[in-house]
Amino acid sequence: NAGVMQNPRHLVRRRGQEARLRCSPMKGHSHVYWYRQLPEEGLKFMVYLQKENIIDESGMPKERFSAEFPKEGPSILRIQQVVRGDSAAYFCASSLYVSTEAFFGQGTRLTVV
Amino acid sequence: GIQVEQSPPDLILQEGANSTLRCNFSDSVNNLQWFHQNPWGQLINLFYIPSGTKQNGRLSATTVATERYSLLYISSSQTTDSGVYFCAVYSGGGADGLTFGKGTHLIIQP
What is the pLDDT of residues A4-54, one digit of tens each? Predict the structure, then answer.
């Protein structure tokens, strides 16, 4: 049973480009969360999705960031017009039910140059 | 929102030593998890422990929900135990995800 799969593991983008981060939850999990980790800090919640629905995006910046979890395929975190401050590790987690044990992917390290 | 405080922030030990890491939280929680982030950045699930005591090999954890704290015990430390240990909680309905503490950075020296 594969765990949470994220790709790419590393992503380098120039300022102004778009970044797309993908997350496939554990088999049978329909609850997906995205978190961001800045250097030397803990993880901060960004958005919570179920299939085809955004449930809570209170932690996501209002501009340039969007997320989706389509009926088919992985969840996508999209960052438009990236800036240097977007450089961070982005983690995806999935759980069987809301607020039950969360399992994390290996993260995507985004570097904006 | 809920506050999660971890202590100590840094800990340096010799191989073979025992340690206790603490997590305090400011409100009632539905779930509490301990994670180990290894030097490669991977987050490893250690315990899902909203209350009570659990053990897994050299590691054990206790959560006293009524007093709003959790403890992680590491016995007979090994160099591979090095990394950052995070406590994270769900409060309320959980729709706003886990709230993480700032972590305890553990270094085990040979």
Answer: 999 999 999 999 999 999 999 999 999 999 999 998 778 999 999 998 899
Q: Look at residues A31, A84, A80, A30 and name the one whose alpha carbon lies nearest to residue A60.
A: A80
* Phi, psi of B12, deg, nearest 5: -120, 125
Residue B15 CB neighbours (<10 A): 12
Q: CA nearest B87 in A: which residue?
A: A42
Burial track B66-97 (b if 16+ CB lie within 10 A, e otherwise)? eebbbbbebeebeeebbbbbbbbbbbeebebb
Greatest Cα pair distance, chain A, in angstroms, is 38
Q: Determine whether A90 is exposed, middle or buried from the number of CB atoms within 10 Å of its CB (0-12, 13-18, 19+).
A: buried
Cis peptide before B8 (omega within 30 of 0): yes
Which residue has tokens 């886990």?
B98
Point out the residue among B41, B86, B93 whose CB comes nearest to the CB of A99: B93
Distance from CA of A101 to the nearest CA of B (A): 6
CB contact under 8 A, B95 and A100: no
Q: How many CB atoms are closer than 10 A to CB B48?
A: 15
**Helix or strand or coil: residue B55?**
strand
B83 in contact with A, Cβ within 8 Å = no
Q: How far is Cα of residue A33 from the mean position of the Cα atoms in its chain? A: 7
